[in-house]
Every structure is written in C-alpha cells, then in structure tokens.
Amino acid sequence: MRYESPTTSSEAAAYLAEEKGEAFVLAGGTDLLVRMKTGLIEPDLIVDIKRIPVMQTIEVNDDGFRIGAGVSGAELGENEALVQAWPGVVEATNLIGSDQIQGRCTMVGNLCNASPAADSVPAMIAANARAVVVGGSGQRIIPVEDVVTGPGQTTLAKGEVIEAILLPSRPAESGDAYLRFIPRTEMDIAVVSAGVSLTLEQGVIKSARVALGAVAPTVVLVPDAATAIIGTRLEDDALLNLASACSAACNPIDDKRGTIEYRTKVAGVLGRRAAKIAYQRAGGA
Amino acid sequence: MAGVHVSTNVNGDAVEFVCPQNETLLDSLRDRVGLTGVKEGCGTGDCGACSITLDGRLVCSCLVLGAEANGREIGTVEGLAEGARLHPLQQKFIEHAALQCGICTPGFLVAAKALLDRIPDPSEEEIRYALAGNLCRCTGYDKIVRAVQAAAEELR
User: Fold this and answer.
1) Can you tell me the ipTM of this complex?
2) What is the model's pTM?
3) What domains lie within chain A, and their CATH numbers?
4) Domain limits at B37?
5) Is A184 on the interface with B (CB under 8 A)?
6) How far is B64 from A171, CA to CA, in rounded Å?
7) Quick one: DSSP state of residue B32?
8) Cα A265 to the chain's mean position, in Å?
9) Which residues does chain B have within 8 Å of residue A29's beta carbon, measured at their own beta carbons?
10) Residues B62, B43: one domain?
C-alpha cells in the first residue's frame, strides 16, 4: 500500500485517477481504517487529504458556509457562527461516535462512506447542502442528495474527490433540527433518523425540506413531507400529515435494530418532533 | 513495501521512526517508539484504550496511520507524570481504586485529561459523556468518575 499526502485538491484527484489498483481517500479515517483492519478492503493507494489547506477550514461569506472535507466534527461544534446558523447540521455531525471519533470524523467522510444511517447526511440534505467535487476536468457542484446511490455506492467517478460542503446562508426566521432514534443514549447507529429545515414568514412555514435516514438504501429527501407543512403554522393536523408522508417514504430493512413496521412508524414520529424543534428555532410559537 | 520516514513530536520530545505505509499510529507508538502505555483493545475505534492526543485533539491511535503523524504533536499517557510525580489524575485513580486490570486506564487518563483541559469543572454528566468512548469491563465506571471529579477539584 502506498500513502500519499498531497497539498492541493487537483494533486489528490490526479493520484486517485492514476492509480491502477484500489484507491481510497483518507479524511478522518474512522470508517476507512476500520474497513482495512477488518479486511473488508485492501487499498493499494491511500490519499490523505488533511494536508490540503483548502480542505481544513470553515469559511463564511454572503453565500453561506464552506466547510472543508477534512474538518472534524469537533471543529464544527466549536464554530459558533456555524452552530448558530445550522444547529441541526452540527448536532447531527456531533452525534457520530465518541469524543475520540469526533476529533477525526468528517461530514464528507460520513457522506462518502455512503451508509443509509449516516447521521450528518439527513441534516445536510434538509439544509440544501451542496458538495464541491474536484476531478481531472475541474470542479462541479452537486446537491448532497445526488452523491449517494446505495449502501457504499456514490456517483463520484474515479479520480474525483469532494473538496468541501456548501451550506447556504441562513435566511431570517429559519431553523433546522436533526433527531435520531437509538436504543441507548449515545454511541450507536441510527435505527431511524430525521432532519428538517424550514423558513417562516410571519409564523407561517414558507419553505421546508425533510430528509430521513436509515429507512431506505439511501438517505431520502421527502418532498411530500415538506408539502404537508408548507403554508401551515405546524398545527396538529399538519404534523399528522407530515408523519404520514414520512412513513409513506420509508422502504426499510428488517434487522436486529428495528423491524420494517417499527422503522416506518418511528420515521413519522421523528419527522414530527424534528419539525417542531426546527419551527421553534425559526421563531415560531 | 517501502517504509515511510516520520518525524514527529511525542510528549514534547522529537521522535523519528520508519514504518510501513499502512501501519497504524498505535502500532508505531508501541513497536517503534516503545510507548506501550498505548493499548490495543478493539483496533476499531470503539474502546478508547489507544487514546492519544494528536495536535491537542483526543483521537484513537488505532484509527490514525503512523505516516499521518509526520510533523504533528502527539501526547500519550507517558507524558502525564512529571518525573516521579504522578499527574493528579493518576494519583486519584490510585486513591479511588479506579482500575482493576488496568488495560483501559491509560486511555481513560488521556481522555480525562483532555476533558479537564477543556472543562476544568465538569458535571458528572459531562464526565460520563466525555468518557463514553472509553470502555472498562472491570470497574463499572463509578470509581473512574469519582477519581476524575477528585482530580478536577485538586487541579482547580
């Protein structure tokens, strides 16, 4: 195995493109090194992106936040402006693992690991986050929901690497939230999860995005759940409609952590609760 | 496989070693630097026995490559005591009998120090959350929490 630690994104993309064998990007390593240790993968090349300056910073401007692919969960939680603007995204990322894992794990790694239960992904999709993809032919920017196609599968071509996540600037009267269900208090993988982001106009929901995790082969954006609450003040019937839409969008597996029926029901419950938190954060009563 | 030459800093001392490119920092620290206070429990980031600080941040050394340590600053349990004088955390772990077999103890000490560096006066809940990445199969955790509380008091 060869280890490379380039200092530019294009150099990283070139290493990945030129490798004939199995090539992997190393961000926090909290998934990659586990897969190596357990023999699931045998990389021929690892490209460490943590020496690429543009991937290590959180920048804010009029368009919103740009979070480098190497930024750890702990660093997200320490960025007050980001916590204030996108509390749901930060909370979701900070739910991943222990303090030790938080010191290393990244949103982009969580995304590219392509688990349906990835905690940061429903929050990012609800937040309308976009990914900056760098490859041999330059740069493209795609919605986060277009990155993952199935468990362990992404749309990234050979020689492409995600450089950063873009979060839009937060409009007034907006809020987001993320909730997951696990059978213990922490250090577990989501059985079901829900991310909600919404914007109000005089207390009425003007726009919303709802995303669910661990209930389908990929995290799913649920436009019907958003439609169910747009134009409402999140009254009880709107919440029930949102819950129904969430449950209807589920296509989960049966496993030891939850049955199909259970996950389908809890998706509605979590969608409702996350919407209430987001609504309160947006300044709704 | 060509080895990679790593120049790093461990507990304030300049350290150099050569390791295979796929070797974990855990193995480099134990087998090349000789710091066997870093323990391997699970090797998959679940147990925290291999906890170290990397550029001041608490991490599992089993989830870091040795090659990544080039130019970084590493802190291990061996850096806690000053000569023969134990760090208050170490002293309180002894006084409160916060260990039995001891395998998890270095990781707990490093994680507890990272907590107290950040929050000098943590609540019990904060201590339990901060140490949730460290598993102990002997003590039942209560004695560890008491030892951290006692050390925090002494350090303030």
Assistant:
1) 0.96
2) 0.96
3) 55-168 (3.30.465.10), 191-281 (3.30.390.50)
4) 4-79
5) no
6) 39
7) I
8) 22
9) 63-65, 68
10) yes
